[in-house]
Amino acid sequence: MEFESVIGLEVHAQLKTRTKIFCNCSTAFGAPPNTHTCPVCLGMPGVLPVLNKKVVEYAIRMAIATNCTIARESRFARKNYFYPDLPKGYQISQYELPIAEFGYIDIEQNGNKKRIGITRIHIEEDAGKLTHDPNRPVSMVDFNRTGVPLIEIVSEPDIRSPEEAGAYLRHLHSVVRYLDICDGNMEEGSFRCDANVSVMLKGSETFGTRAELKNLNSFKHVEKAIYFETERQKDIVLDGGEVIQETRLWDPAKSVTTSIRTKEDAHDYRYFPDPDLLPLVVDDDWVDRVKATLPELPDARMKRFVREFSLPPYDAGVLTSSREIADYFEDCLKVFPEPKQVSNWVMGSLLGLLNAEGKSIEDSPIPAHDLGALLKLMDEDVINGRMAKTVFEKMAQTGKTPKTIIKEDGLVQVTDASAIEAIVSEVLARSPKEIEDYKNGKTRVIGFFVGQVMKATKGKANPKIVNEILKDKLSC
Amino acid sequence: MKITKDEVIHVARLSRLHIDERATEKFAGQIGTILEYVDKLNQVDTEGVTPTSHAIFLTNAFREDEEKEHLERDMALANAPEKEDGSFVVPKII
To answer: By three-state DSSP, how is residue A70 classified?
Structure first.
């Protein structure tokens, strides 16, 4: 039997406002517990929440970027449940009338394009943070995060594989970062994802019963958890069993999902319109004003990179995968306007280095203009490619400019033909056997000669001149 | 009967209220009377009328994104039955 997975994702993105959604408390991460609170976010009786205008603006940005229809009028509702991280006993969210609906984004995988529908985007407040005591049956509650603004982006069940889920999520992540509305930090929880997963027989029209997966706090874990869950459900169906509707928690240490709540204990939220908050009206004028401030989005930037810089689509895709990488690339070009060469160095050496050190490009030890300067020096034959690699590594270690390193280490390329010629003669003089081989048609021993010359010059000889002199000498 | 005893028990559970057997029956009767009374509204013809969510005709009350003073932590924790290191302490629920 062949199966098909049906996946829908719910993404919560914390908005990068300075203050909370309904009060003037700071949203800064990492403050001592309960120092960013006030009567409103603590849920004291008699207080009145007032909506932060910036939250609406950010939600509109996301709605435009994901091709949604923005509701002229939307409403806030109370979602009622008891939990220690929720001081009011209800979360203010949007239910029947969310701010945006009916959107989509296009993802691409191995050259295949696919459109993933977005059911809705709504605005809501975050809950507090619970820390469970490892030794006693108690938990500590910190309300600093209570009332931090969130948007929830709900996808249609259009996703068919863990890889597609990963591609969709990465795309959304890059969009919120381009829009500058969310810092996208998955470890700190500012970009979180739940997945609804079911399986059905291939070609079937009816979806199977779904499980909701929680605690997916990295792209990798989202993919792994969905993979595990679809396999688990397939096994159940193959054994003649029935998948039950439940909430399951991903355990990254054991790579399994375990049930935490079945449908019978499902929450009964009793949503109703929040009488404290007025209906939210967003007119065309407001949408147009926000639209005018939107930056170039990843799709558009990628297309421009292909068109303007004649880059292969693969390069353009990698370089525009985050706003910061794309900015870095364009900053390099300002110093050294050779797109393909810059692309090779950014994608190869730089991203390789950052990956190895677990850093993001904002923390790159090499600023963009320094990398541009290095490539320019190579282009001007001040140093050769091999030396450039050495200088690059030193730049990463010391943070010094390429010029400084070249000067300090005496790394200037030897381009003096007579100096190179002397070394070539020396190398040839002690390699009669290799010369014999060369003359007998084994022309690839030229590599050996070049290697020897490079060794003698500590890698500083201009390889083009070395090759020319060698060929010249060997042909006579 | 507008509301069953089971429904009363369910609502009590959602509200974290403990009610005994006798009270369950009593409340079922009382809530039923209230619901019947509210049901009278169904006699009004609301064809073509937009559902009301607010009693006043205002929209869009906003606040600028500006930080103001926070509550002193001791004040925030003043009503906590139990506290420790600046946090509220609650029974563990997972």
So the answer is: strand
Q: What secondary structure, in 3-state letters, does chain B show? A: CCCCHHHHHHHHHHCCCCCCHHHHHHHHHHHHHHHHHHHHHHHCCCCCCCCCCCCCCCCCCEECCCCCCCCCHHHHCCCCCCEECCEEEEECCC
DSSP 3-state of A120: strand
Q: Which whole-number Å values give the CA distances from A241 to A209, A231, A235, A258, in the listed order? A: 12, 14, 8, 17
Return d(Cα A130, Cα A142) in angstroms, integer. Answer: 7
Q: Does B54 score more than 80 pLDDT?
A: no
Please report the sign of the dihedral spanned by the C-alpha atoms of residue A457, residue A458, residue A464, residue A467.
Answer: positive
Which structural domain, as residue segments, surrounds residue B20?
Answer: 5-42
Q: Exposure string (b/e) for A255-270, b if CB count within 10 Å is 16 or more? A: eebeeeeeeeeeeebe
- Look-up of token digits 């904002």: A362
ipTM for this model: 0.89
**CA separation, residue A52 to residues A59, A89, A148 (Å):** 11, 21, 11
C-alpha radius of gyration, chain A, whole number: 30
Contact B87 A279 (CB under 8 A): no
Distance from the first to the final alpha carbon of chain B:
37
Q: Which residue's structure tokens are 């004291």?
A: A44
pLDDT in tens, A169-217: 999 999 999 999 999 999 889 999 999 999 999 988 899 999 999 989 8
Query: Mind listing the domains of chain A with CATH numbers?
Result: 3-288 (no CATH), 296-409 (no CATH), 417-474 (1.10.10.410)
For residue B89, which of A139, A110, A425 has the smallest C-alpha distance? A139
Task: State whether A278 and B60 contact (CB < 8 Å).
Answer: yes
Domain count within chain B: 1
Q: Are strands B87-91 and A138-142 parallel, antiparallel or unpaired?
A: antiparallel
Whether A51 contacts chain B with CB within 8 A:
yes
Is any Cβ of chain A less than 8 angstroms from the Cβ of B75? no
Minimum-distance CB partner of B58 among A24, A143, A278: A278
**3-state SS class at A358:** coil
Burial profile A287-314: b = 16 or more Cβ within 10 angstroms, e = fewer: eeebeeeeeebbbebbeebbeebebeee
Residue B37 belongs to domain with CATH number? 1.10.20
Residues of A in contact with B11 (CB under 8 A): none
Residue A266 has pLDDT above 80, yes or no: no
**Global confidence as pTM:** 0.83
User: Contact B62/A82, CB-based, under 8 Å?
Assistant: no
